[in-house]
Amino acid sequence: MVRIGDIELGEFPLLLAPMEDVSDPPFRALCKQQGCDLMYTEFISVEGLIRDAAKSVQKLDIYDEERPIGIQIFGAELDSMVRAAEIVEEAAPEILDINFGCPVNKVTCKGAGAGILQDIPKMVRLTEAIVKRTNLPVTVKTRLGWDEKTMYIEEVAERLQDVGIKALSIHGRTRKQMYKGEADWTLIGKVKDNPRIRIPIFGNGDINSPEKALEYKDRYGVDGVMIGRASIGYPWVFREIKHFLKTGEHLAPPTIRERVAAARQHLSHSIEWKGAKLGVLEMRRHYTNYFKGYEGVKTFRAALVTQSEPEDLFAILDEMESVLSDQPELIG
């Protein structure tokens, strides 16, 4: 049984990676329904939280059906990080997660996210301060290092464990790599094999199929896997992996009715949570994967990513279900 503090997550938990403008409550609800064991919010700026910025505060929204859930924060200043941790605790998640892995320039240039990988002692100080200030279990998500010359993740894992984190998620790329190339899990496996490491180690990067989840579980011995991009528009990835790990067999892909139902739920909740304009806009990245591989889908998909009125979008989805429902399976 894998545990983060007192939170039981099963024998081999599947985690939803925190993704900006993706892992919001409407999307998380779908992933939970499909078997995700632990989810994190979109990452939240600590400076935004302590200034009471609307967008940052809204990201604190969590719902009972999502639990257990972690709220993830990022920042670079100790006082701000600690004050934000206090705000997060008031929101009552099960876990507080620190993002030391985001590679985008607007974050790293301020020394936050993966930027802090250039200053490991500061990374440890910030983490220790938050652990001491909050009663929540603290976890960390990070990368192998800043670049190929600074892949200090084995040392970092020990030092973060020593100051009290309860789990570590490692993306198998450096900051320099961004999301390019193939994730290297070799060092993730070495961290897990370290006899000094007692906390759960979760691997992240390129898990996009049941076969790969099983392969990496067996090869690298991680306690669970964190799934990001493979879940966008395809929350069924969680149930498919779980079924394959349990039985060695593949589930049939979701039917067009399941896909339309998921898209409708996602769009409806997105509009409710964000408002019509933003809710419609941020759904567009999901449609390609929701309906990937169906013959005749391109015209519908083009309409879904260009129409702006909710009633028009729901009508398109209804028509898709009617027109495509005779197709028994994906065509590839």
Describe this structure in words.
The structure is a single chain. This protein is of the alpha/beta class and 332 residues long. The protein folds into two domains: 3-247, Alpha-Beta Barrel (TIM Barrel), CATH 3.20.20.70; 256-324, Non-ribosomal Peptide Synthetase Peptidyl Carrier Protein, Chain A (Orthogonal Bundle), CATH 1.10.1200. Helices cover 45% and strands 13% of the residues. The chain contains 14 helices and eleven strands. The protein has helices at residues 25-33, 46-50, 54-58, 78-91, 105-108, 120-133, 153-162, 186-193, 210-220, 237-247, 256-274, 276-290, 297-304, 310-324; strands spanning 3-4, 7-8, 14-16, 38-40, 44-45, 69-74, 95-100, 138-143, 167-171, 201-204, 224-227. An eight-stranded parallel barrel has the order 3-4-6-7-8-9-10-11, surrounded by five helices. A two-stranded antiparallel sheet has the order 1-2. β10 (201-204), α9 (210-220) and β11 form a beta-alpha-beta unit. The radius of gyration is 20 Å and the shape is globular. The model has no long low-confidence stretch (mean pLDDT 95).
